[in-house]
Each structure stands twice: as C-alpha cells, then as structure tokens.
Amino acid sequence: MSLPSVFSRYHAEVNAEIKSLISERQSPMYDMMRYHLGWIDAHGRVLNRSNGKAVRPTLCLLTCEAVGGEYRKALPLAAAVELVHNYSLIHDDIQDDDIERRHQPTVWRLWGKPQAINAGTVMRMLAGVAVRRLEIPCERQVRIQSLIDEATIKLIEGQYLDISFETKPDISVADYLDMIGCKTAALISCSVESGAELGTDDRRRIAALREFGWNLGMAFQTKDDILGIWGRQDQIGKPTGNDIRHRKKSLPVILGVSETSGPRHEELRRIYNRETLDEESVRTVIEMLESAGALKESQRITVEYIQKARDIVNSVSLEPSFRRDIDELVTFLMDRDF
Amino acid sequence: MSLPSVFSRYHAEVNAEIKSLISERQSPMYDMMRYHLGWIDAHGRVLNRSNGKAVRPTLCLLTCEAVGGEYRKALPLAAAVELVHNYSLIHDDIQDDDIERRHQPTVWRLWGKPQAINAGTVMRMLAGVAVRRLEIPCERQVRIQSLIDEATIKLIEGQYLDISFETKPDISVADYLDMIGCKTAALISCSVESGAELGTDDRRRIAALREFGWNLGMAFQTKDDILGIWGRQDQIGKPTGNDIRHRKKSLPVILGVSETSGPRHEELRRIYNRETLDEESVRTVIEMLESAGALKESQRITVEYIQKARDIVNSVSLEPSFRRDIDELVTFLMDRDF
Fold it and tell me: Which residue of B24, B25, B27, B31 to mutate against A (max A Cβ within 10 Å)?
C-alpha cells in the first residue's frame, strides 16, 4: 500500500517554509531539527529522505482549500502544525527511551537527552514564529496562535496521562480515549480547524470540521496502536510488538486485559507488569490479545471513529475536488499498514 | 543581606495571576508546576514558601511604571516572564541532573524526568496564554508575544551552548559571554523591554531600557557564577562549590584555566576533566582559582556590566521614585550573597 499522491502535493512547499524558518537561525543546535526532519544525516550530509507522512500539514492545507482558501497563504500554518507534531516526537522519544524512529537513531540517541530536550522545545517555539508569518488580520493571527497553543497544551496533558498510565494497574477504555483525545486528536483537530479558519468565516463549517478532525485523530491513534503491535518492521520503522516490549497501555492491551478473566487475565497482567519483557513474552502477550479478540475490537473502534468523521465531513459544504482528496486521505488513514 | 522590599511589592499579584492561569486547567500535571513554584509540598499540602527572588517580573513591572505605565495592566506579562524563567529551571535541572533547588528536591527528582519534561514545556506554553490576557491593541500583543518567544529561543540556544561547553576542552571568555548573553541576558532584557513597551511608545527609551536589561542580565549571571562556587549553602540552597562538582565551565573556571600556565594549568585542567570530582578535588580547584585571581577578575567583570547598566539607565528619563527602586534593585543584584 503506497501513500496517496495527495500527501506529496504540498510536501516540498511545507518543507521549504520550515527550512526558511530554520535558516534564519545560526546555532548548530538546529542541526538536530534538520536531522530529525530527515534533511541531513548524523554527519551533516544532505539527504532527501522523506520525513514521515506529514498528515497534519496535508489535512491543514486540504481543508483550507476545500472551504475556498488559498493554500499558499496557509503554508506557515501548515509548517507550524508540522513543527508542533515533530517537537512532540523528539520529546516522546526521550520520555519513552526509544532509540529508533523512521529506521534511524532518534535525536537523543545521537546528541544525548539534555540536548534533545532543547531541540524539541525550540522546535515548538518556531511554530509560534511561523504563525506570525501569516499575512492575515491581527485578530485572526492571535486566534490561530491560541488554537495551536491550546492544542499543544492538550498534547502535553495527553503525554502526561500516557506516561502516568505506565505505573497504574487498571486503565479503562474511557481513560484511554480521554488520553488519546489529548495526545493525538487535539492537534489533528487543530490542524483541520485552523486550516478552515484561513479559508472561511463560516463558524458552523469551521466547528463541524474541527469535529471531523477530532474523530479522524481518534481513529488515527487507535489505528497507530494496532500497528504498534501488529505492524511490520519494514513498514513502520519499528519492530513488531514494539509497544508490548515497552509495556505501553495501548488500546489492544487495555481491551485484552478487560476482556479476559480468571487465570488468563491474571497471567496477562502478570507478564505485562514485568520490568522487562523478553521476546517470548512479547509473542505470548500478542497471542493472548488476539485470542481475547482485542485486535478485532480495536479495529471496530477505529472504524466507528472513521465513520463518524465521514458522516461529519459529508455534512459540510466543500469544493468537490478537495472533498475527493479528503475522502482518499481518510480511506488511506484507515487502511494503511504503516 | 535581606531582599529589598521592592521584590515583594508585586509578588502577591504576580502569583495570583499565575495561579489564575493554572486554575483554568484540570490535569494533575499542574501539581508539578505548583510544587516547583513553592505553592504545595511533595504531598500536595499548601505551603507559603517564597518562589525565588522573582527578579524578572519585578524588573518588568518596575520598568513599566518607571516609564509611566500602570503595573496592574502588565501583570499577565510579568506572569509570562516568570513562567518562561521557571520553565527553563525545570528543564535545566533535568539536563544538569540537579537534585536540589531552593533547598527542595527538584521536580524531576520527585516525578521522574519524563514527566518533568512535560511540566517544563507546558509551563512555557502558559506564558503564551498569559500574554493573550493583556488588554492591549492586537498589534502590540503580537509584538510582545514575539519578544517573549525570541527571548525563549535565545535562552534555549544558550542552554545548548552551555551543555556543549561541558565536552569542549577550551572555552574562551568570549564564548562564555556569548553563551550567557543567550541563556540569561536575553530574558532579563526582554522582561525590561516588554515592561517598557506597555508603558510608553517612545522607541528610543524602550531601546535604551532593553540595553540596560541586557547589561544587568550579564552582571546577574557572572554574579551567579561567583555564587555557584563561593556562595554559602544556607544562602543559595546549593552546596558550596556546586558548579565545580558539576564541572560547569562557569566564568571563574574559564578565567582560572586561561590565567594559569605551565604545570598548574595542566593540573587544573586534568582535575577538572575527571568524570567525577571528590570533595578534596573540589576544594583544590577552588583554591587554584583563587590563587589565579579568578574570583577577583570575575568580580571586576560583574562590576563592569553593572556600571554599564547604570550608565544607560541614568540616561533614560524615568519617574523619580521608580528610578530609586531600580537603583536599589541593581545594587542588590550586585551585592547579594544569594
């Protein structure tokens, strides 16, 4: 399954915007950002590696166009949401002790955690600088800045919950959904909403698109959780069962624990609460989750959010050609294997 | 030596502003911020501990009044600069592995580094929220937001340099001054400049006050470096020689290395480059620095910046009573032993 062409439509221009933001700065610190974004390798040599799917800037610009806006004017905004997302990845990798991302060593693995903290935080600061590049009325700029700040705050609150779940014995599905609402859906929703803000004044359309983005974000994360256990290393850049190895309380695990009972339930909890999991334990956990129906139920929940997102977006008046692009993007996000 | 009364003048109101910002948020994550600010202890019990000297908000509000502004309208700005400063302390403690601050365990020591990273970053985000509370024309608000963002970016660039100095063999005094210009002077300068922005439209006065703040910030940091080696534990909340123990390349060390020669130079470098320094080595280094005249030279540099700051502020037209307050604050910052 390959990435639909809509993902590459804005790619070069969003990258150029981010490059231009970084090029105003002198410190070698920004090499950590360039490396994380796939522009240079660990020795500073220029690369042409793709830096992820760029889901958020693509959604932002597509939505802007779909409500009648000009995507070129929204490029700094698309850069901003991509910077927020990538700042969070740099910090997540530190917090989770992850040594690889996109088949490459993580920033902290090469520069150490103290410097990687700086790289992440300064990347978040540049998102604010990007928003000030938008040539729009001042009040609207402040509103967009507020949307992005609040989405970042939600994202951090979600990351706080996610980490705190690691040491809590019983996490309910409701707890989990609350966490991913903050950690993932808030920024995806913000990407869509802020893109819409640049294209229209119609508050009802903007509100509906925010809801569309939120449901899409929920589905995106539950799908990610499925791939975090059952995804293939060559596709997602992380070994199969990676989230199990890190004892992440992702959706299939929470469902698995809540839907098994008796000795199997105890066994699953016991294995999962070990300090470290060897490869055999990882395989055992995956099998137990499958036989408890956790994969199927995770897929059902994903489809439910996707359907909700589709229903909402279908109720909004959009430019037909961009509606088709959005539909294609939504379908890909649900069916993807990476 | 006690804190001049000017430091307590705005204290309660700045704290109330920060409290009101945090009280809008629900997550238990904000308890890390409350703890760091000295409002609650590790068990969540309410305290009335002072949270540091609050140099930046005091300078911000004093300057605002000194150019004819109303400090009450600037309280969200004062809260913002205090939040930026405290975010940086939370991250610094993580990056430097410091286990104590203000006689208390650091945030990461109690909650772990992953969560402390979240506490720091979200604290920085709340500074932006604070700026949007300012009831001022939109264009000016965007300008203030930009000043604070750029000061934060400088601060992070300075922290990057500071950490990178740890593994570089020869740091010149010029390198060091460049680093503290970013790490410390930028935010102090921004506190003064943004405070002035809220009180006057006179660009020349604002520019002069920014320069005043920058020189004051430089002196503040060189003085801090002196206290980081020769300060008393009961006064500064950290053991004497703490910066030596952490092999920080602070001003006295850089001066000491550059002003000794031959075997003494080699000996100093050799001891300082050890993985860990025992208490005897710490004492030896301090004695070597003293006999090389590094304490005296550090004091001379501090006085030079203070004098520059004084000359500039004396050239600016200010309300007389606030000028006296600023003079008192400057004198204290130079003479302080904590």
Answer: B27
